[in-house]
Design brief:
This protein is an alpha+beta fold. The protein has one domain: Fumarylacetoacetase-like, C-terminal domain (Fumarylacetoacetate hydrolase, domain 2). The chain is built from five helices and 17 strands. The strands form three sheets. Strands 4, 5, 6, 8, 9, 10, 13 and 14 form an eight-stranded mixed sheet that branches. A six-stranded mixed sheet has the order 12-11-15-16-7-17.
């Protein structure tokens, strides 16, 4: 693998023939980790994209083992109907690392890195903070039974970014293999009365232009995503931890965003979350904030 300059001023990691044809989870994970650690794009998928869920999560596990940060949550996304036969689970998950999780105070704008020349998007989402460690081995959670594991529910944003611009186009196996295409979870104001709600209307703007509207049903959406994550982690021999954040799935769409643009995500009746993108540097700079006050890093949840 060799880095080279791109036409737009960024750098691209060029894969050799042997690497770009490998099926080994460790080789694929190494390709993505090398690019993420250097903050540069990939010119192609670093191997053969996983054709099934088992292989995809093997790659993800190999990459997690190599990455020098602690998992503090998970992103969740639905598997598109077109891929349901090949990847027969309703959702997929990917790790959210401590450096890329930030809780905003009122008026702050999250500053989040994305990969120049890679994939970059923002997604309005409801974020759940987990109340307690989940019991090991329990795999029959449902949206009706997970309420006790919700410490708090928040309006928020997932920052989706990968060194590979075409990652989403390659399907769920590829997305799972590269950290679920996650590179940030922004936790905004709390939805205090979530137990009394059926749904929330949401709208997303990028540079003040409307780009999408949607409605999220609390039970089928956030609570269903939490149940899926609890079950999936238990099947993987792991559990969720108190304080983990769960970014529960896009509401208004997956909105492409360029470096330097700013998004605003308005949750009717509950406020808004704003994100400004910056160029990812080496080792992936974490989300930060901008406001009238000095930036604060790594607030605990």
């Amino acid at each position: 693998m060799h880095p080279s300059a791109s036409a737009h001023g960024g750098r691209i990691l060029t894969l050799n023939h042997e690497t770009s044809n490998s099926c080994k989870p460790e080789d694929i994970a190494h390709g993505f980790i090398a690019a993420r650690a250097a903050g540069i794009a990939l010119d192609r998928y670093p191997g053969t994209p996983p054709a099934d869920l088992e292989t995809a999560y093997q790659v993800q596990a190999a990459a997690i083992a190599r990455w020098p940060d602690t998992i503090k949550g998970w992103k969740v996304a639905r598997v598109a109907p077109a891929f349901a036969a090949q990847f027969p689970e309703e959702r997929l998950i990917g790790p959210a690392f401590a450096r890329n999780i930030h809780r905003l105070d009122s008026g702050e704008v999250a500053q989040c890195p994305v990969f120049e020349g890679g994939f970059a998007a923002v997604e309005a989402e409801v974020v759940i903070v987990v109340a307690a460690d989940s019991p090991p081995g329990k795999v029959d959670w449902t949206a009706d039974s997970v309420g006790a594991f919700v410490k708090s529910m928040h309006i928020g944003v997932e920052v989706a970014s990968s060194p590979l611009a075409t990652l989403n186009d390659l399907g769920p196996g590829a997305v799972i293999s590269d950290f679920g295409n996650n590179w940030g979870v922004v936790v905004g104001p709390e939805i205090v009365n979530w137990r009394e709600l059926e749904a929330i209307d949401v709208e997303t703007f990028i540079d003040a232009q409307p780009v999408g509207r949607g409605k999220v049903a609390i039970e089928a959406g956030p609570l269903g995503a939490l149940a899926f994550t609890l079950n999936k982690r238990a099947k993987q021999g792991e559990n969720l931890r108190a304080g983990d954040v769960i970014s529960t799935g896009m509401i208004t769409g997956v909105h492409d965003i360029r470096i330097g643009q700013q998004s605003r995500h308005v949750f009717a009746g509950f406020g808004e979350v704003q994100v400004r993108t910056a160029r990812a540097g080496a080792v992936g700079a974490p989300c930060g904030v901008s406001s009238a006050a000095p930036p604060k890093q790594g607030q605990p949840l």
